[in-house]
Write a structure and sequence with these properties.
Layout (H helix, E strand, L loop, with lengths): L1 H12 L8 E5 L9 H9 L17 E7 L14 H13 L4 E7 L27 E6 L2 E6 L3 H19 L19 H11 L11
Parallel strand pairs: 1-2
Antiparallel strand pairs: 2-3, 4-5
């Protein structure tokens, strides 16, 4: 799946595969040696000297980021004692697309390239004492999930401050929320509903996340 997604991405990119300088491959659905990154590079025919350094410090870098996910380690028989195992597989399997995706990341695009989006800034914020609200433990049966019912409320209580910090960093105010293109890791429909309500988003603003 990752090979097909990567090939489609490269075909839409506009430059030859030999111009890929870095490869990043992500999957929680495998545990093997050699890893999936080597297998992916081989199937795609990438250069043997693919870089491992920091792409940001190397002008002209083009990073192929590919992910392939089935969440197969979460599949197990339903259990009344662990209802959230099934919920976790449904939520995170669906959000990962239960398939594969690929994107090429770089800066200063050439005329022959066809860039789709530009990253202006990035920020992350950890909420204190919430590290066990969503929990996944690897057991002999696979991953066992625990998902707190209070997650939508936690997000509602904190999303305005986080979005305000993000918007301020790029010179916008909270009044510009509806001018933005929103792509959100959904985590379930309840979270999206809380976001729409709290940020006063127009109908359809979160359609890409549903």
């Amino acid at each position: 799946m990752a090979v097909e997604a990567s090939q489609a991405c490269i075909n839409n990119w506009g430059r030859p595969i030999s111009d890929i300088t870095h490869l990043v491959y992500i999957s929680s659905s495998e545990a093997r040696l050699t890893g999936g990154n080597l297998q992916l590079a081989k199937e795609l025919g990438l250069k043997h000297e693919n870089n491992r350094d920091i792409a940001e410090n190397n002008p002209g870098s083009r990073v192929l980021l590919a992910t392939s996910e089935t969440t197969i380690i979460g599949f197990k028989p339903p259990s009344h004692d662990r209802p959230y195992d099934l919920v976790g597989v449904v939520l995170f399997g669906a959000s990962a697309g239960a398939g594969a995706k690929a994107v090429i990341v770089g800066s200063d695009p050439l005329v022959i390239e066809r860039p789709l989006s530009e990253i202006h800034s990035a920020v992350q914020h950890f909420l204190p004492d919430t590290e066990t609200i969503i929990d996944g433990q690897l057991t002999e049966e696979g991953i066992s999930f625990k998902i707190g019912r209070e997650i939508p409320q936690i997000i509602e209580d904190n999303i305005v401050d986080f979005c305000g910090m993000l918007m301020e960093g790029v010179g916008h105010s909270e009044k510009d929320y509806n001018k933005m293109f929103w792509v959100i890791h959904p985590g379930g429909p309840a979270i999206l509903k809380w976001l729409e309500k709290k940020l006063d988003l127009l109908l359809g603003k979160l359609s890409a996340s549903r």
